[in-house]
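Quarterly update, task 2.4: heme C-bound model.
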Amino acid sequence: MSGRRRVGPSVSRRRVALASVAVAFAAGLAAAQPPAGGSVAGRDLFASYCASCHGLDGRGGGPQAAGLMVPPPDLTRLHERYGNPLPRDQMAAFVDGREDVEAHGPREMPVWGERFFEGDPGPPRGVEASRRRTIDVLVDYLQSLQGFEETRLRR
Ligand code: HEC
């Protein structure tokens, strides 16, 4: 969105901006209804960052999917290739993408490890930790999409 103001160079101003984003995000979460599976936070993140390609239901029918060279896979069927429960570390590493791109070169899927907290003053440990927490919540959500009875009961 071009209407969003870029955060200035001052570290303290950036911190303030980040804090207000966190507050707005928390307020949004408080207002949302809990979904059938996975956490509200996970569903929210998925809707904001993933659904444009993977579809709200994770099956790959998002509005951007048709324009991609590689079609986004059906994320509700990840267990068929990775087993259930999903291998957390492998899923997290793929979503983060920084190592993946180092090893295999550019990919169509965004490198979320860079996108999340882009423009952050970094690299204090807190930034890496909150990046990991965000990805962790998304991996939980991917697990909740697998549709197994035990997965739904797990939470
Ligand atoms: C711009 C479109 C796009 C967006 C947005 C997107 N993805 Fe993807 N995703 C893809 C494509 C295309 C693939 C296929 C692998 C590739 O990139 O070559 C993929 C693959 C995946 C895979 C691996 C599936 C497998 O078969 O191993 C996972 C997991 C995944 N995405 C999760 C996510 C999550 C979580 C988000 C949101 C944080 C997200 N994706 C956002 C396009 C996207």
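Highlight for this quarter: The first helix runs from residue 11 to 31.
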